[in-house]
Every structure is written in C-alpha cells, then in structure tokens.
Amino acid sequence: MCVGLSAKVVSVKDQTAVIDAGGAQREISAGVLDELEPGDYVMVHAGVAIAKITETDDEEAVDVMEGLI
Q1: Are 21 and 43 in contact (CB under 8 A)?
Q2: Total domain count for the chain?
Q3: Coil vs helix vs strand at 34
C-alpha cells in the first residue's frame, strides 16, 4: 500500500514547490500539476504533487493519519 501526504503549497518556482506538511517544509516536484499556486492544497507521493485537493480534504487526511499513530 502506498500512502500520500496532504500538504499546503507555500511557494512555486518553475516546476518545484515548497510545501508545508504539519509544520515541516520541503521541496517537491510540481511538474505534474497545472497552475499550482501558493495556498493550494496537494496530495504528495514520493516527492511529487500528484493531485490538488481541498482544505477540507487536507483536514480529513490529517485526522486519519493522526488516528493511525
């Protein structure tokens, strides 16, 4: 099973984005998604933003992950 991580986009430059996932920031590849902007929420897998999601989706994903720990 693969697990994606939800995160908020902090900045985007070229095809790289900086995301914030629970207070931890890191660079990821953003080349798969069109028109990604700071403030967007994304699902990240293996260092790649694979889908845009809503803020509600992000909150639900965080709740599920916290429930697993």
Answers
A1: no
A2: 1
A3: coil
Contact 45, 5 (CB under 8 A): yes
pLDDT digits (tens, 9 = 90+) for 7-45: 999 999 999 999 999 899 999 999 999 899 999 999 999
* CA separation for the pair 41, 54 (Å, rounded): 6
Q: What CA–CA distance (Å, rounded) separates 28 from 8?
A: 12
**Residue 43: CATH number of its domain:** 2.30.30.140
Please state, in angstroms and rounded to a whole number, the distance separating the CA atoms of residues 35 and 3.
Answer: 24
The structure's pTM equals 0.87
